[in-house]
Amino acid sequence: MYWIALLPSLEDERCAWGWRALQFTPRVAQVEEVLVLEASAALRLWGGRQALLKKLFHECQPLQDAQWAQARTALTALGKLRLKLRGETVSARLDDLPLEVLSAARDHVQTLERIGCRSWGDVRSLPRAGVARRFGPGLLEALDCAYGVRPERFAWLELPEVFDLKVELASLATSAPELMWSAQRLLSQLQVWLQARHRGVLALELEWTLDVRRLNGLSLPGHQQLAVRTAQPTQDVFHLRRLVGEHLSRATLAAPANHLRLRTLETLSLDGASRSLLPEENAKGERLHQLIERLSVRLGPGNVVVPLAQADHRPERMQIWKSAASSSNAALRSGSNSRTVHNPLPCDGIYPSWLLPNPLRLEVHGEKPHYHGPLRLLAGPQRLETGWWDAQPNGPALRDYFVARSEEAGLVWVYRERLNPHSGSLDELAPVRWYLHGVYA
Q1: CA distances from 273 to 45, 235, 270, 282, 402 (A)
Q2: Which of 62, 95, 138, 383 has a CA 20 to 30 Å removed from the CA of 229?
Q3: What are phi and psi of 347, to 5 degrees?
């Protein structure tokens, strides 16, 4: 048997350390103030004791360091860890371990010392029947388990289905950014849970408990919540910290807060990342969707937009602008990382770089359109007949598009509006209307 006893440097990280240990062995238990894990069956899988210890304590971030000790039994590892925490020399012989490090012997240390017993070996050398009558069977049972004579039994830890942790703040927080320090610690533990579950978080919720229930004569709720969503499932705690920090910098506390809770609202199974063998394809730095999420929080969702193609031949309706964050979330829900919409434009169409928000009606002299002088038609017409399904006051779009040249403005995109044969207006004397719709940069 090979047991490891470990004690996290931060008490509220004990649960996260247990989740981390479950990645290496299913036999993890909490015994009093420490965690114990039995890893003899997994040593071959991880490449031996040294490789296992390296992965457990050095390669898994971002939790704080933990003190640890190893032995053949859990109680022996626990006793050696307690000696190590006291700064005393850890003996290799079990008989030399002091009685103070064995929990079952703590209540009897003074009595045992008066009869000359100061170590585990001294007690084991006494008659078992007399020790059982004087100190009860628990002391001998604990020593038998520590020496491997009797099997040790523990309640093994299990990974929860949903991450939900609550911590008490070191001091009352009067503003939302003051919650960030505790939120960072909770996010670190969330990353350990996600790695153990092989999942990525899509939505999480921060909830803080208000210290007062009334303020200025007004009743307040007991809690406040803040939901944070990501475009793609992620385990990147660095990105989550920056995203939560942006949200907290814009939140307002109704009253001072004394507790902070973090729980997951939505997670997805996360496949392993596929990396290229070519170094130039493994780009470093922040991903695009992460930048969009942070900017959407900082500037507002309506100020970070992306164009989405629409199945419409009218140039002014070929695309719409939507919030970049909501668009990426919608694409993810549909089962793809990119949204593809059929583009109705023909590949050989000559379209301008810039469209006017509203077409500009041009002056016509002698059936020639004018824009800073007469226009010379170079290419066209490109006929457009569409929009009959829309209830527009002017009916469907009936246009003939041309590429024209202006002596001052350069190349422009204009169209001639044709009469609607179904509108009842077939007056041949009606003036032909020309519009400027785009400019070639």
Answers
A1: 22, 12, 9, 11, 50
A2: 62
A3: -65, -30
| Distance separating the N- and C-terminal Cα atoms of the chain | 76
Q: Which of 8-22, 262-276, 285-299, 315-329 has the highest mean pLDDT?
A: 8-22
pTM of the model: 0.62
User: If we measure between CA atoms, which residue out of 259, 105, 40, 310 comes closest to residue 113?
Assistant: 105
Strand partners, 29: 36, 156
CATH entry, 164-269, from 3.40.50.970, 3.30.450.40, 3.20.20.70, 3.30.1490.100: 3.30.1490.100
Q: Where are the domains of the chain?
A: 3-146, 164-269, 301-344, 354-439
Give the total residue count for the chain: 441
pLDDT per residue over 161-191, tens digit each?
899 998 888 888 888 888 888 898 899 889 8
